[in-house]
Design a protein that fits this description.
It is a single chain. With 470 residues, the chain is α+β, with helices and mostly antiparallel strands. The chain folds into three domains: 217 residues, DD-peptidase/beta-lactamase superfamily (Beta-lactamase, 3-Layer(aba) Sandwich); 124 residues, 3-Layer(bba) Sandwich (D-tyrosyl-trna(Tyr) Deacylase, Chain: A); 74 residues, no CATH class. The protein contains eleven helices and 23 strands. A six-stranded antiparallel beta sheet has the order 2-1-23-22-21-20, sandwiched between helices. Strands 16-8-6-3-17 form a five-stranded mixed beta sheet. Strands 11, 12, 13 and 14 form a four-stranded mixed beta sheet that branches. The two termini are 37 Å apart.
Length: 470
């Protein structure tokens, strides 16, 4: 019997080793097919696959070379946020007033919106955050205080995260478009607005700007868009710098396109939030004597918010778990930049991109990840200057499995190719990072990345490598 048991255990051990070797061999074969492909001729390709139970490397190549990550960086930002903020963390946005309210309902002071970095304020993704819901709550609180007229204005206090809203390293073609929206202590409608377009009747004809939604009368758009030929689609970009009120529309808008238009980044979301509340009050016959403003704009005039602030209402964001869900599912860059700054700010540091990136790197260094494997420029992966190794990213994904918030974390990963995996795409960069469980219950952590490839359709070829796990 003892001999039988020994032989049985030896068989099991040998079988498991053979299985692991077979999986590694399949991965290596598929990977070599990729790197020899014409599209990868001048590219750098990296793959790291770990056993999700033990953390041991099943197959890796170029796993310690730092590469631009695109949006797979969001997996690191969101994991760090879960660790440091907690899955039930909520942002707070406070509404208050300064001055006094007279017997006839006149506020001799200002209405103040104070933000703490909530990226969901006014967002359409959650019922409680929708623009009209927020505005209705603010108006109800102002009315409940007996305010019928304001000798002053609505002011956004956007001082918490400072005035640097765009990470250094973002490119000009991205800044000004919805996915390149700046991050500040007050966000509004995910810091974007829509521009509805109508193509001309022939290629090269002028494109007509029909309207902006919502109306943004304080922004002037110079339209240089031309009509593209049928089938060319959307090649239109907005060039709109932070805090400016003049932007340019450039590129082409194809004939026959089904989309109504493009989405641009609000140059000053804090001002827009104050503007929308003040405009709503005006429509309800609660007039303000001064124009809407922000602490940034006041500072330019050497002014500041005067007087003690008296509370009217505090609005809470969805939980971090709910925020991360959309952050990874829809790859919302704004959420990543806000979370990065929040991680630093909650540690008592400056609420800036640079401080946030350092806080993330330091956090993972404390968990055994080499600092030099994590070169972060932002929190979303939009910057082509990010350099992260696939080994570092895979190691972070492996560690995340041990945490009580992991169920919410993995729920946020999109489902691609039968895997729970986050994608990333920027110019000539495509990457995937996530988890896979095969039909036999074997679990894997996989990160694959290619930089500087040529042509299109590379995702299919990356999936062919990952299919070796099936």
């Amino acid at each position: 019997m003892k001999l039988f048991n020994s032989l049985f255990l030896l068989f099991v051990f040998t079988s498991s080793v053979s299985f692991a070797q077979t999986t590694a061999q399949k991965l290596e074969k598929a990977y070599q097919t990729l790197v020899k492909d014409e599209q990868a001729k001048y590219a750098i390709t990296s793959l790291c696959v770990l056993d999700a139970n033990t953390g041991k490397v099943i197959f890796a190549n170029n796993e310690n070379i730092g590469l631009a990550t695109a949006s797979t960086l969001k997996t690191i930002t969101s994991a760090t946020a879960f660790y440091t903020l907690g899955k039930d963390f909520r942002y707070e946005t406070k509404l208050s007033y300064t001055g006094n309210i007279t017997a006839d309902g006149t506020l001799l002071g200002d209405i103040i919106i104070t933000g703490s970095g909530d990226p969901t304020l006014g967002s359409w993704r959650y019922e409680q955050t929708k623009e009209n819901n927020i505005l209705n709550q603010w108006v109800a609180a102002i009315k409940a205080a007996g305010i019928k007229k304001i000798v002053g204005s609505v002011i956004s206090d956007d001082s918490t995260f400072g005035t640097s809203t765009i990470p250094t390293g973002w490119i000009w073609q991205d800044i000004g478009n919805y996915y390149g929206a700046g991050a500040g202590s007050i966000c509004w409608r995910e810091n974007q607005f829509d521009v509805h377009l109508k193509p001309g009747s022939s290629t090269g004809a002028d494109v007509e700007v029909l309207k902006t939604v919502p109306q943004t009368p304080y922004i002037q758009l110079i339209n240089e868009l031309k009509t593209g030929s049928s089938g060319t689609g959307d090649n239109a970009y907005g060039f709109l710098a932070p805090y400016t009120n003049i932007g340019y529309l450039r590129g082409t808008w194809g004939m026959g396109i089904k989309k109504s238009g493009i989405s641009l980044a609000l140059p000053d979301a804090a001002y827009d939030a104050a503007y929308r509340l003040q405009d709503t009050l005006k429509r309800l016959s609660i007039e303000c004597s001064k124009n809407a403003s922000s602490t940034r704009l006041l500072e330019i005039e050497n002014k500041q918010i005067n007087g003690e602030q008296k509370p009217l209402l505090t609005i809470f964001s969805p939980t971090l778990s709910q925020i991360v869900y959309w952050f990874n599912k829809k790859s919302v860059n704004l959420y990543g930049e806000q979370l990065l700054k929040t991680v630093a700010f909650k540690q008592g540091k400056e609420g800036s991109t640079r401080s946030g990136a350092k806080a993330v790197i330091d956090f993972w260094a404390g968990k055994g990840i080499d600092k030099n494997a994590l070169n972060m420029i932002d929190g979303s992966g939009l910057s082509p200057g990010n350099r992260i190794t696939t080994m570092a990213m895979a190691s972070i994904l492996f560690q995340a499995q041990k945490e009580e918030w992991f169920a919410d974390y993995i729920k946020s990963f999109p489902d691609y190719n039968g895997m729970s995996i986050k994608s990333g795409n920027i110019n000539d960069v495509t990457a995937y990072a996530g988890y896979y469980t095969d039909k036999n219950g074997n679990k894997y952590v996989a990160v694959i990345n290619i930089n500087n490839y040529s042509g299109s359709g590379i995702s299919r070829k990356l999936f062919q490598v990952l299919d070796a796990l099936k």
